[in-house]
Amino acid sequence: MLEFLQIFRFLLHYNLHLFLPGLIALIFFRKKWKLAWAIMLTTLLIDLDHLFANPIFDPNRCSIGFHPLHSYYAIGFYFLIFFIKNIYIKIFAIGLLLHIFTDLQDCLWIIFIT
Ligand SMILES: [Zn+2]
Fold this sequence. Notes:
Blueprint: H1 2-28, H2 33-41, H3 72-81, H4 87-112
The structure holds zinc ion.
Zinc ion binds near residues 46, 63, 70, 99 and 103.
């Protein structure tokens, strides 16, 4: 059962990273949904901050508040840039916040399941 939940957690995490931005792009940026989705996918690059951690990947470590680009300061910055009146920056900010949301739900899995 635990193994099934781990597989489900893994699939949920990466599907949210890849397809939730696509769904949001389709709903809110219908005319340029492919561009909006592509911009939001670039926010996966903030995971490069894992390279500074040892070990680089630990499935039972919560990214939020641990890695520099997942810190509370960074998240506050992502909220702030959402209010800049440039549609591309706004889409980027939404992508960043969706990324943080996805990582946050993964932290809840760590707390409640493992
Ligand atoms: Zn992340």
